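Fold this complex.
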Amino acid sequence: MNSDKITKSVLFSVSILILMLAAGMVYSLVGGAIPAFKAFGLNFIISGEWDPSEGRENYGALPFIVGTLLTSFAALIISLPLSFSTSLFLGEYYKETKVARIIGLLVDLLAGIPSIVYGLWGFYVLRPFLIDLGFGGQGFGIFTASLILAIMIIPYATSLSNEIIRMVPNDLKEAAYSLGATRLEVISSVIIPNARSGIVAGYILAFGRALGETMAVTMLIGNTNIVPTGFFQTGNTMASVIANQFGEADGLKLSSLIAIALLLFVITGVVNALGKMIIKKFS
Amino acid sequence: MKTILSFVLAVFLFTSCQNSPNSTNKAGESTKKVSITAAGATFPMPYYNLVFKNYTKESDVLVTYGGIGSGGGIRSLKDKVVDFGATDAYLSDNKLAEMPASIVHIPTCLGAVVIAYNLPGIDGLKLSNELLEKIFMGEITNWNNTALKSNNPDVKFPNKELTFIHRSDGSGTTHIFSDYMSKISSKWADIVGTGKSLKWPVGMGAKGNPGVAGTISQTEGSIGYIGSEFAFAQKIQTAKVQNSSGAYIEPNIASISAAAQGEIPADTRIMLTNSSDPASYPISGFTWIILYKEQGYDGRSEAQALGTLTFLDWLISEKAQSDASKVNYAPLPPLTVEKAKTILRSVTYNGKTLLN
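Structure:
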């Protein structure tokens, strides 16, 4: 056999393996979730009740779905001005300077910090700071979790947007300048329209990351299994409730946790598909 | 590519981990050397870590313990992947029936659940049964409450929000706490009930005893329940709790031991909360090791079964028990040790008893 054929068959079998892994995961998630959906039906998704007491078990995923979407959207909105300004700064204003390289490096470094470290920092530094500022309660809750998530997703949104903004052809920008456009006008009418799909992709990637984040959120959200009624209330997310409760779970509770995992999988899938659609539409 | 490869590797490792307990059993058989695997409750873990290590030094038998929670311990025994499991809540008759074969409970030590709080400068808070109900049902939301004041006339309470910190994961600690609450408050029994995880009326959750202990010590105005050993070791403030005789009792080794002085059933399945002993701390309880009554299952060797039983017999001996108080647990009272020894001697291998 020649080397070309060997390479081809190796690559093929590896790809098949990945495909089988993904399929196997879906299969086991669906299999594990069946008892929960059998017991509660679609009510599982819209019920805000999470009662693990023996004899009156009743599980609904709504508190966690709401908690997950709320924290992730809030994190996206909080991080938007920060990461977008940074990417413009790096990709346009200070393009290819020493300052940009150093800041770019630091932003990438943020992505490499393990989430438990963010959690610790949030618990010991950010939370006391929020209490001192007079935010409600003990500093735990949706808001604190969103803040820490926002910081965590900044590098994801920034790096990609920065790359794309840098790739906008100089000819276009120079043409705009020669027509008398100011720098701000160049950004709003040349750079952003050209880089739109890449920027959106960066934010979708960041949102996806926020959806599945577990440790840092668990340490700060307060872990109360109710549908949050306010932004400063405590709550819980899908990833966090699974991490917290799978250890002691059995029977219907275990199945409900697996069903939540399946829902999280579906939501992440839908978000990614939506992202791809948006990118296609814009480009 | 690198990440994909490591992911594939991780999956393989994970699947092989799941199968390993069986294979170690078989490996143990072939080399004729006994190594004991166990898993379960985190509540007695500091004690188990200490004495299991001592036993390995003493007898050259390796005992590995995984602190995966009481529920995990029961599940592991049910799946027959461990030699014995450990739990803080005894198996109810229903749960016993769900197990593939008959199970025995061996109590190993006594622990307590303490009410820990964070109010700088205020020590020895006294909590009556009514106050406990009001605090944990969410009726008292500020430390400046009149009911708290009238029960603690000498204390100057701050005007501070009261935050209840409970466990976010299922736990034997929660089981002992909620069992006590159900005994002293009919309202709690009706609305919340007893269990390893509950539908909490108020408060916020933190993971594990260390998580709750850490959150309380970091949050002024918080109150919660934790395993006594964590509070003692980290010197967190604890409240005096009113027992069934009306006395306010500080949790310590002596008052925890006092809870087990009464009559214990032959299978030792009893919750010791709200004990009638006047000197007892009311939120105390046994922690158990569970194993199959018939040890000849799944091709286990007789040496493995004998090794397990010899170890457990040592665990309730005076030698191991005297180490309990070093890590802030109370040793078993002599009467309970007698019962536990009798139970161990009823365990069989293919029908014949191993210990005598």
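The mean pLDDT of chain A is 90.
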